[in-house]
Amino acid sequence: MCKKLIYLVSFVLVPALATSLCSATVAPVTSVTTDNPPGSPPYHLLSITVGSYTVDVSRLASGTSTTTLDPVNGTAVPLPDDLEIGLQYNAGETTDAFTVHMFGGKLWTDSNGDNPDFFLFEAGNGDNASIAAILPGGQVGQAITLPEDWGGDTGYDSSLNGQNIVGISFAITDLLDAAGNPLTNSSIIEGLAITDRSGLDPSDWCAVVPPPALAKNPNPADKATDVPRDVSLSWTPGEFAALVNGHKVYFGESFNNVNDAIGGVAQDANSYTPAQRLDFGTTYYWRIDEVNAPPTSHIEFKGEVWHFTTEPVAYAIENITATASSTHMANTGTENTINGSGLDANDLHS
Predict the structure, then answer these.
(1) Residue 326: per-residue pLDDT
(2) CA separation for the pair 146, 26 (Å, rounded)
(3) pLDDT category of residue 227 using cuts at 50, 70 and 90
(4) How far apart are CA 340 and CA 187, in angstroms?
(5) Is the pTM of this model over 0.70?
(6) What is the residue-wise DSSP string for 271-321?
(7) Whose CA is closest to 120, among 201, 196, 183?
(8) Euclidean distance between CA atoms 81 and 84, whole angstroms
(9) Separate counts of helices (H) and strands (E) for the chain
(10) What residues contact 345, with CB distance under 8 A and at least 6 apart?
(11) CA-closest candidate to residue 97, choices 169, 17, 191
């Protein structure tokens, strides 16, 4: 039986930033992890690290370029296995101005707080290109210029005239609007415009996006209460889930077991019915891990742990007033009939 070898290869980029932009988030990419060894480009990205921040392939989209500043021509976000660096820089990027699309023609907004949002890998020595945000409607913001000579020799051949790969990261807050004001984490953009290439030979652009590969929209909803004991669980599948055994279901009363992926059932359907009727008044935890379709079936995306609580055995009835035409004792009223005690001291109903 043939087995596919997965190489977890990390290479370190050690650029020296001579200058910095207004934001402290502009920083060199410190390492990347790939699934193939050095000397065999293109290198398939599994993760990117900048300082203490690491983003894995489930949150990355790769960029494609056009030779114009027209954001409409962007192509769909590729499957994670298409995240490659070092094969060659994208065709058409020999002109001074071009557009980078990492959002499949969709609008983009920050989804990871103050961490880096964009990564640029280039073949060569960190040229100081000018980059601008493409704002909704196609308006191009004012450009920022990357620091000069931010590259570092990684020893990894990009297959572009024997040059090696270097990397830099920046955030949405490093970019400017049309008036020159910094964008914020809530800003929305359509893409990136390179207004001055300055010798830049990109081998790849990446953006951090919300995880499209994760299961979402749980039913019953997360933290739901009063759930029927014969409930059937369902969810919206991740974008890349396989049609056969594309979902792994973890379900039970133990948060730790579900969170640690103990047990689990692989299945095709995006619904799951527990084998037995659930207990009254019990909290259950569940999680769906999505499994990629071939040829990247080795990639799984860990889902969130959701939980719900089943219906109670009985419901207390509140705000009821009882009256009677008479009582068996002068000091006993009708309240024992409805307040839960039922009987008085003489074992008689009031």
Answers:
(1) 59
(2) 8
(3) very high
(4) 57
(5) no
(6) EE--SSPPPTT-EEEEEEEEEBPTT-TT-EEPPPEEEEEEPPS-----S--
(7) 201
(8) 8
(9) 1, 26
(10) none
(11) 191
